[in-house]
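Q: What structure does this chain adopt?
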Amino acid sequence: MNAEVLAVIAEHADVPDDPAQPLELSSLELVQLAEALEARFGFVIAARELNRENFATPEKIAGFVARKMK
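A:
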């Protein structure tokens, strides 16, 4: 898993020891995390992409970022 992605996540949420475990994010924290990912990695996240499929776990977020970077 990308250490840079984990660092951004850690700024906005408690990262579980197992990256496959769910994050506990409020809707505000989710938006703040999305904005931080956009700023750090230089892509835009559409509102429809802010869902559990992409943001449920650190592992899913890292996969989402990798797909956006292609």
